[in-house]
Give the backbone structure.
Amino acid sequence: MTSSVLTQRDAPAASGTDKRTILLVFAGLLVAMLLGSLDQTIFSTALPTIVGELDGVDHMLWVTTAYMVAATIMMPIYGKLGDLIGRKGLFIAGLSIFLVGSVVGGLATDMTWLIIGRAIQGLGGGGLMIMSQAIIADVVPVRERSKYMGIMGAVFGLSAVIGPLLGGWFTEGIGWRWAFWINIPLGIVAIAFAAVFLRLPKHRASFRFDVWGTLTMAVAVTSIILVTSWGGNTYDWNSPQILWLIVAAVVAAGAFVIAEYRASDPLIPLSLFRSRNFVLATVAGLFIGVAMFGTLAYLPTYLQMVAGVGATVSGYLMLPMIAGLMISTIGTGAIASRTGKYKWMPIASMIVIAAGLVLMSTLTIDTALWIMLSYLFILGFGIGLGMQILVLIVQNSFSNSQVGTATASNNFFREIGASIGGALVGALFTSRLTDLLTDGLSGLGSAGASAGTDLNSLTPSVVNALPDAIRDVIVGAYNDALTPVFLMLVPMLVLGLVALLFIKEVPFRTTLDDDETDAEASADSPAAPAVEVSATDAPAAEEVPA
């Protein structure tokens, strides 16, 4: 049984918060989001130098995997606890844990401590994006919130590109440890803004922590991420290790559903899935995650091999995609705030993303660079059209007492989609690449055979130094291996488009009152109450007037 009472606010009601204070809070939230999202990508370009210096090439993958596993597991935990005990203290705690992990990583003298530091960072970083999106929901109504969420989406997209660029810049300049040290001043600023300007409801809650749900979820998430990280790289896809991990993921996922059904305070309440808009928006968000991260994972390699540019330049060449994402996500936020109409946005998103992928599938080794960049812009523009609007649709389907849990669940499944997307694209790409390289090089006789003795050792600099005939085969193989994969993702987006046609366009709320939510959520899903603290019939949270 859960009881939750909302006590007197420590400031005037959020609905009366002045715009200057909201902007100051928002600035701190943006910094926190930037920290959490940057650390998913900043080490991608620095890893070769790091593992060489710390003598740990065989543990290289764990530097990124440790963060991903910890962060993904913590997402629903932060969301649930934020709804039950309040978000301000939890947000500051998450930032503090993230900074502790940054210090541990920055001082690491071997791979063990580096991986421990990254795992600690993930324990805090998993809540930064979730709590930021939920906190803005505490102080700004959904209709007005769309403008802020658009900017948040732009920051998230920007970090996907500037992370690798910063990692490379630190590594080649002042040292890779600054990828950790840069977090300290930024994190302190975010904590200060939250401590001084953030005024949220205080909660008193007694609840039973969902131990079995958390454990089974952790096993399922860890297994899924290890499958997507190791499959086709560390182990073959049909190896016993990968097959057992897949079995563990399926069994743990089933056990998680059972645990949530039986829990008095489920981590991810199954009642969320009674909301049609929640289910459809979450599925669509997962598809967008697959398209975005599946593309981002391998395009830099494609650009280096096919366009013949360096690692840093390949990062810069991704900027048109991020520019498109930033323009559309900020623009849709402003339009939704002004007009209140939003259903067309995620639908248009699926159409534009599909169009972008179709265009990307037509690339050849002779395609002009400006044409390729324009296709990337279209792809990014499509992603931005729907990314943050789908989060708002989820938030609009539930009261403030559940907004953290709903937001965390939505992001949780999107993160799973991102992992699966990267693995899906990677599996298809590497399988096709191996076949094409083997066939192409064998056709060149002894010269081709000697060049292809170790396909894993091919780097842009090595390829550029090869004879023209061999280089043409390798460049053509990279192009022909990746471009058809883009087309293979289109049917998934068509399914997402069909799903979004059934979204019910419930008007975005213009106040922070939960009464308005009740009526709207009941229109979306008559079978499910909009306000639910747990799976029990416990009374909804009450607010004591200030």
